Amino acid sequence: MDLVVGATGDLGGRITRRLLEQGEQVRVLVRDTSDVSPLKAAGAELAFGDLKELVTLDAACQGIDRIISTATGASRGGEDSVAAVDQQGHATLIRCAKHAGVGRIIYVTATGFNTDSPVELARAKASTAEAIRSSGLDYTILQPTLFMEAWIAFVVGAQIQKGDTVQVIGDPARKYGFVAVDNVADLVLATLDHPDAQRADIPLSGGSCSYRQIVAWIAKAIDRDLQIHSLPPSSQIEGFPPIVNELWSFASAGGMGPLATPKVAEKFGLEMIRPRAFVQQVFGTP
Ligand SMILES: NC(=O)c1ccc[n+]([C@@H]2O[C@H](COP(=O)([O-])OP(=O)(O)OC[C@H]3O[C@@H](n4cnc5c(N)ncnc54)[C@H](OP(=O)(O)O)[C@@H]3O)[C@@H](O)[C@H]2O)c1
Asked: Disulfide engineering: 73 pairs with which of 34, 60, 85, 172, CB 3.0-4.6 Å?
């Protein structure tokens, strides 16, 4: 049986639904503060708990073969701090997994996340990845680039609902790697029984482009005259979660650059969604 941690989130939800569609038995660690009815309706076994509560993790890990964790506190805040969830919570999860005899853990971090990063989330996720590598468990650590849903559809989409100017932190011509969440879910599913995914770190990108290109594609798709306003690093774009502004500054200073992973796509049989195709899916075809 699989345990998905983060199943009420975007990526974890997609992974859970796909596993259930394939006929797998799936337990999900969920909090009673989130809407769990879609997971229950899809056939998931609910284990109520929290990454901050050891006892609930111990119980959730019993009888589990594989854990897939996409959980993060980055977008939650309050008691769900990065330190409590991404670092300490996962350290406890790894201990409970070993104690319960879980065979394998699949963990989602990101390309460019290192233990010496200036960004707390990047340091926490990199140190969790290190703890997993040295845990003795079989593992697969996925390192996707920036999610298109967050960094194209939300970041640009939210701004063009309010006006014709798109604020961009850093140089609009700088290129970044982007990946569609569906492709990350594809990779998780493809790694589950793939021998090359054992004890492996796997990056994934759907392609690289700049915000100048993205905004031009969107302007054409929606037939509007959009302007770009470039902001210096450490700027705060009003209305965006602090983690978005922090990561964008980090990325714009070279922390998360362009990336191509055609060999990964080929090896795991993935049909990658390119940034331009994603823009057309979301904003329309000119
Ligand atoms: N966005 C990007 O560009 C990007 C790029 C590369 C990698 N990633 C990584 O991809 C992963 C998935 O992202 P996503 O967009 O699916 O995230 P998300 O939608 O924000 O989901 C976060 C999940 O973590 C759970 N969670 C938070 N605190 C918890 C706690 N204390 N105990 C148990 N569960 C807790 C949430 O549960 P509740 O609903 O109960 O709060 C939710 O299910 C993340 O690890 C992220 O760092 C993201």
From this structure: 85
C-alpha gyration radius of the chain: 19
144 CA: nearest ligand 1 atom: 6
Q: Which amino acid is at 5?
A: V
Query: The sheet that has 138-144: what strands, in order across it?
Result: 45-48, 26-30, 2-5, 66-69, 104-108, 138-144, 200-204
Domain with CATH 3.90.25.10 in the chain: 150-175+207-259+271-283
Task: Quickly tell me which residue has 């009420």 as its tokens.
Answer: 8
**CATH class entry, domain 2-144:** alpha beta
Instruction: Give domain 150-175+207-259+271-283's CATH superfamily.
Output: UDP-galactose 4-epimerase, domain 1 (3.90.25.10)
pLDDT digits (tens, 9 = 90+) for 29-64: 999 999 999 999 999 999 999 999 999 999 999 999
89 CA: nearest ligand 1 atom: 31
Domain with CATH 3.40.50.720 in the chain: 2-144
Residues 179-220: pLDDT tens digits? 999 999 999 999 999 999 999 999 999 999 999 999 999 999
Instruction: Note whether 278 and 148 are within 8 A (CB).
Output: yes
Ligand 1 neighbour 9 (Cβ under 6 A)? yes
pTM of the entire structure? 0.97
Ligand 1 center to 73 CA (angstroms): 6
Query: What is the CA 167 to chain-centroid distance, rounded?
Result: 23
In sequence order, which residues have a C-beta less than 8 Å from that of residue 264 and are 6 or more positions away?
Answer: 187, 202, 203, 204, 270
- Is the shortest distance between the CB of 34 and ligand 1 below 6 Å? yes
Task: Tell which one of 72, 80, 151, 278 to mutate to probe ligand 1, the residue whose CB is within 8 A of the most ligand atoms.
Answer: 72
Q: Note the pLDDT tens digit of each residue in 237-246.
A: 999 999 999 9
80 Cβ below 6 A of ligand 1: yes
